[in-house]
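Example record used in the benchmark description.
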Amino acid sequence: MLEANLLAEGATLIGDAGLATLGATIGMGLTVAGAAMGIGNVAGSAVQAMARQPEAHSRVFSTMLIAAALIEGFTFFALIICLIVAFR
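Model output (structure tokens):
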């Protein structure tokens, strides 16, 4: 009876804060999954490049570390934004 009255008055079950938290949670999951895929691709390509040209190991490795650090930095920034939205 109470639920029927609340829905009749136009109240929502989730609310704006719940939708923001849901969106932030989905955003965090997508961010982490995308970062994992990106770093996996970078590492896999670097291993293939090192296997093909072992003499270029140091250049490939340093480039791989820089790319992985940039991906991690972006991921950390995106997670902070999602947390700000979730707890605002």
